[in-house]
Amino acid sequence: NLSSGGLPIKRLYRQKQPLPTRLIMLHDISHSMSWHNPLLYRFVRGLTRNIATSEAFAFHTRLFRVTDIYRERSLERMRERLEADNKLWLGGTCIAESIRQFLDDWAGQVVTRRSVVVILSDGFDTDTPTELGDALAQLRALSGPIMWLNPMLGREGYRLEPAFSRPLQPHVECFLPAHSLESLRNGVLKMCELARH
């Protein structure tokens, strides 16, 4: 133990990763995401509770701020508050319209040029890809990089349809899978990388 100053262990130190100065998460809680959301609720909640400057918004056919709800200590209490506020509604998805609502109601308060914006969605949308691309262009004009975490990308054989992804690519830094703990870990590492630039 003398070589380690009397400690009976050898400590390993890793370089601390800088977190985004402001992390904005837009979380799709529509019906098509119900299979993936037990994992993603915990993921978004963990980031929201551990990054003081983070903001979380949930959407289906409309968008609402859920930062305080996701910071609940109990996951069950979080779900109760979502249900009580009539937010946990498993219906359709309007991604473009929800982003426009975010731009109108919240972007001026929470978005800065150093924000990293994370969209968590499978991309199934009643709005057209062109409408979604236009909404993302407006968001990217105000924010830092946008990344998209898509749980469907973890399915064998699944890939984004060019007709969907082409209008989005100029505005989205990267599309990454979000179907497992390992993929979400890689997503966090990418957030840290984007925060450095």
Question: Nutshell version of this structure?
Answer:
The chain has about 200 residues and is an alpha/beta fold. About 40% of the residues lie in helices and about 15% in strands. Strands 3-2-1-4-5-6 form a six-stranded mixed sheet.
- Order the strands across the largest sheet as they lie in space: 3-2-1-4-5-6
What structural category arises from helix and sheet content?
alpha/beta
Give the SSE order as H and E letters.
EHEEHHHHEHEHEH
Number of strands: 6
Helix content: 25-40%
Mean pLDDT: 86
Unreliable spans are: none
Straight-line N-to-C gap: 42 Å
Give me the number of helical elements. Answer: 8
What is the CA-atom radius of gyration, in angstroms? Answer: 18 Å
DSSP strand content: 15-25%
Shape: globular
Sheet bearing the most strands, described?
6 strands, mixed
Structural write-up:
The protein is an alpha/beta fold and 197 residues long. Helix content is 39%, strand content 15%. The chain contains 8 helices and 6 strands. It has helices at 37-50, 67-70, 75-84, 95-105, 107-110, 129-142, 162-165, 181-195, and strands at 22-28, 55-59, 63-65, 115-120, 146-150, 174-177. The protein has a 6-stranded mixed β-sheet. A hairpin with a 3-residue loop joins strand 2 (55-59) and strand 3 (63-65). Helix 4 (95-105) runs parallel beside helix 6 (129-142).
Q: What's the structural blueprint in terms of helices and strands?
A:
Blueprint: E1 22-28, H1 37-50, E2 55-59, E3 63-65, H2 67-70, H3 75-84, H4 95-105, H5 107-110, E4 115-120, H6 129-142, E5 146-150, H7 162-165, E6 174-177, H8 181-195
Parallel strand pairs: 1-2, 1-4, 4-5, 5-6
Antiparallel strand pairs: 2-3
